[in-house]
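Section: protein folds

Sequence with per-residue C-alpha cells
===
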Amino acid sequence: MSKNVTVRVPATTANLGPGFDSIGAALTLYNEFKFTCLEKGSLVISVTGIEADRVNTDETNLAYQSFLKLYQHINQTPPPVEIAIDLGVPLARGLGSSATAIVGGLVGANLLAGSPLQLQEVMGIAIALEGHPDNVVPALVGGCRLAATNATGWEICDIPWHQDIIPVVAIPDFELSTAEARRVLPTEYSRADAIFNTAHLGLLVRGLETGKRDWLQAALQDKIHQPYRQALIKGYDAVKDAALASGAYGMVISGAGPTLLALADASLAPTVATAMGNAWKEYGVKPEVLALQIDSQGAKVSI
C-alpha cells in the first residue's frame, strides 16, 4: 500500500529593506506538494496551478532534487515517488518559489523516511541548498525570522510582527532572476553604508514589533541592494511614490524582485494596493496586487 504526505509551503518575502540575506517573512500564499510512495515504477511529476507549464516534470525538478538530497543525507535509497504540485506562488518574482520547492521536497522526504531528522537538521540542509537563509527559514517554520551564523551553524530568531502591519505585494507580469539581480550588486561597500544598514535593521526589528509609524518609515531604507536593483524594475519610483502617497509606511523590493512590497496599516492596505496597481499600469505593467497576512505556521503537513 502506498504511503503519501502533502506539504503546504508558504511564499516568503525576504530582505525587507535593510535585512539583506538575513531576514524574511512567510506570507499567506502557498504552493502544495503531495508525495506518494509507489510500490514500483519510476518518477511521476504533475503540476497544476499558475504557470504550471513552466515547471520541470523530470528529475531536474527542484522539489524532487531536494527530496533526493534528504535521502542521500540519511544514506537511504529513495523510493519511487509520484509528486503532485499545485502552484499558488508565481515563479521568479521575488516571493520564494524556489524555497517552497526545497522545503516541500525536504519535509516530504523526511516524513516518508520515518522522520529521522529533527527540524534544525532539515533547516540546515535547506539553507545549504538555497545558499542563504532568508527565504527557506520562514518557509519552513513560519513568521518573520532573522538568521545569523554561530560557531557551528545558524541561530534563528523570531521577529514579532505587529498585527496591524499588513504586507501588500504588487506582483508584476514580468520576471527578474535572482542571478541577474545579484550581478548588479557591488563586491564591496563603504563603512558608512554598512553602519547605515546595521542601524536601520535594528530599527526595523523594533518597528515591526511595535507598529510605530515613524520607526517603520525610517527603517525600510537600505543602501546594500535596493539602490542597485531599482533600475531593473520598470516603474519602481512611480509605484513607490503611489504607495507612500496613499499612506504606506514604506515600500521595498521583495527578495530579489521584481515584486514590490509595501507595509501598511490594516485600515489603509486596500487603498495602498489600489494605488500601487494603478501606478504600475501607467507603465504598461499588469500587476496582481494582494493584501496578505503573515503565515505563522510555515510548512504544514497532512497525511
Remarks:
- The first strand starts at residue 4 and ends at 14.
- DSSP finds ten helices and eleven strands in the chain.
